[in-house]
Amino acid sequence: MGKNSAISAQFEEGKKLFMKGTNGDKKAVRSAYDIFLKLRNDMSRDALLEAYYGSTLALIGRDAVQPIEKADKAQEGLDTLNQAVTMEPNQKEIRLLRANVCLRLPESFFHCSQTAIDDFSFLLAQYQADPNYLSKIQVTEIIKNLSTAYQHAGRPHEAKEVLQRLSK
């Protein structure tokens, strides 16, 4: 994120609102969207900002009433997240954001469980190389989510194998 302290403060406020939104607060989602949109318009493209903007679009899609708006916003969010990963493919927070969005989108419509699998696998590989890369809580959550992604992709055997890592 940029060096300007006002921009950083706005970004952090957007992240707080985003987290409230992930827990179901629709007003917080709209407020986070407004912040990320403004920051996006005020500065050059930043991969992490793009990732939060895209994740917020996906939440707007989640909260939409009309099916077309649900699908359009979710797809726009996914496209933005994919662009953010293209910009910074090794950025942990961006990969986590995209993986979690992909995990929650319906596989029958968006076909992005494999993207979630790829992102969660990438994060676990980074952790294998550097045990300080993720906390134990994050590793546990990622393993559970990876198993779920395999289930969504119709690969129950791999889902079960992944969960066996937790018992080790």
What does this structure look like?
With 168 residues, the chain is mainly α. The protein is 79% helix and 0% strand. It folds into two domains: 1-89, no CATH class; 95-168. It contains nine helices and no strands. The radius of gyration is 16 Å and the shape is globular.
Which structural traits does this protein have?
168 residues, mainly alpha, 2 domains, 9 helices, 79% helix, 0% strand, globular, Tetratricopeptide repeat protein
What structural class do the secondary elements suggest? Answer: mainly alpha
Helicity, in percent?
A: over 70%
The low-confidence parts are none
- Oligomeric form of this entry? single chain
Count of all domains: 2
Question: What would a concise description of this structure say?
Answer:
This protein is mainly α and 168 residues long.
Could you outline the blueprint of secondary structure elements for this entry?
Elements: H1 5-22, H2 26-42, H3 47-63, H4 67-87, H5 92-104, H6 107-110, H7 113-129, H8 136-152, H9 156-164
Helix pairs in contact: 1-2, 1-3, 2-3, 3-4, 3-5, 4-5, 5-7, 7-8, 8-9
Organism: Gracilibacillus boraciitolerans JCM 21714
Protein name: Tetratricopeptide repeat protein
InterPro entries: TPR-like_helical_dom_sf
